[in-house]
Amino acid sequence: QVELVESGGGLVQPGGSLRLSCTASRFSSADYVLAWIRQVPGKGREAVSCIRRIGGNSYSAEFARSRFTISKDNTKNAVYLQMNNLKPEDSGTYYCAGGRLIDTVRHMCRNPDTFDSWGQGAQVTVSS
User: How far apart are the first and last CA of the chain?
Assistant: First the structure.
């Protein structure tokens, strides 16, 4: 399994921005999908964005497409989530997750159970 460590969470006002970072280690396979999955109050776990380590194919949930951007830096084994125009309903715990590529990025992203490695989570609070 891959080890994942998130950073960058915090408190931000509505309309503000945050950048989450996730550093991965112990890749056992070169072809991984890395994901940002969130748990918000009153809702189940939902995928935000996912990106393939090789090639960079990505997929984002509809709510994230206009405000959030996923990116990666393979030289640092890192994946990032730039979140802009944050809203109170974006508050929650954001997890970095990883898994070997076993299907399309879109399919894996829409099915978080396909990821077998998880970080400890980063808390994001959007409040005035």
Answer: 39
Tell the residue number behind the tokens 């992203």, with chain if given.
Answer: 109
Predicted confidence (pLDDT) at residue 29 exceeds the cutoff of 70 = no
pLDDT tens-digit series, residues 30-74: 789 999 999 998 888 999 999 999 998 999 999 999 999 999 999
Token code pair at residue 106: 């879109």
**Residues near 63 by Cβ (< 8 Å), separated by ≥ 6?**
none
Measured between alpha carbons, how far is residue 36 from residues 25, 30, 79, 93, 128 in Å? 16, 19, 9, 10, 24
Q: What is the pLDDT of residue 41?
A: 87
Q: 83, 98 in Cβ contact below 8 A?
A: no
- The token duo for 75 is 């030289």
Going by C-beta distance under 8 Å and a sequence separation of 6 or more, which residues neighbour residue 55?
Answer: none
